[in-house]
Amino acid sequence: FLRKEGLSKCGRCKQAFYCDVECQKEDWPMHKLECSAMCAFGQNWNPSETVRLTARVLAKQKIHPERTQSEKLLALKEFESHLDKLDNEKRELIQNDIAALHHFYSKHLEYPDNAALVVLFAQVNCNGFTIEDEELSHLGSAIFPDVALMNHSCCPNVIVTYKGTLAEVRAVKEIEPGEEVFTSYIDLLYPTEDRNDRLRDSYFFNCDCRECSTKEKDKEKLEIRKLNEPPSAEAVRDMIKYARNVIEEFRRAKHYKYILCLALAPCTGLVELLEICELSLDKMGAVFEDSNVYMLHMMYQAMGVCLYVQDWEGALRYGQKIIRPYSKHYPSYSLNVASMWLKLGRLYMALENRAAGVKALKRAIAIMEVAHGKDHPYISEIKKELEDH
What region holds the SET domain (predicted)? Predict the structure, then answer.
């Protein structure tokens, strides 16, 4: 599930990996939906993650029409779809997903009518969970109905983590009897306006938590460089607008334009991505402090490119600039902070700075033992890394 090295894989499609043969057998009722199609389409097999998840939901509803173990409190069919709030663009994207579902899964799936599929895709979009590894690298998407019952807060009192295909919820603050349990639906790095833009776009609500009501962290998150002649309010507004635009353009470039670039000429594509980051950092740095969240966003992207091309020194330089502001801007026990300490620890170890590596890895473990639980395999892996070094 987490890493391909040493795992069993499907002998037909060669694309599905399992922890062992028993796990592979258990997954066959689901994998058979895709196996023959993967073989038939070859390199043209490219349904989106949402399409693949929805196909599995349909299959499970056929196999288990009764409530499953993960639907003790809330059945998937009871999910909110926000259908009445979808604009034309979102409806068109759903229709594209429905077309892809029919295209890639026609052999083994029984479909409801188009209207029911629109509702189902809308429910999956609003209630799906992103699964990530210990360094917050993307692994996939899943549906956990009972976990989806929790509301959002920008100052959450629980964190959701994953152990294989199981979602686990742990408190990161004291929760009094009768107090509501809140998780976070979004990345909490950004200022109030940005967070609520994301919440409205994806989940159709504004947050009224203490963090959003007081906006107490916004000034630090948008810190301006201290100059002899401070930039005007207009210059700051223009730079914030530029930062938001370039981040959005970078995301689009990363996910669309450069996919082909990376496939055909990976070094060229990555160099261009790194140049986008560096040019943006230079421009924003004339107004913003390094601790400004827009600077941190681009540093994080640049660090990712450096890691991909195995430029350990470059990745370490960016990580060292990121970690302290991250610790200030994110809530306590943030997985984002833990993953950054983990990345730094592994970089220090790779560059033979054991003392700094041990210190960073122990900081990661301290957060992860709260968020993941002390018995989580990730923590065992990190402790083994410490022993091996």
Answer: 47-186
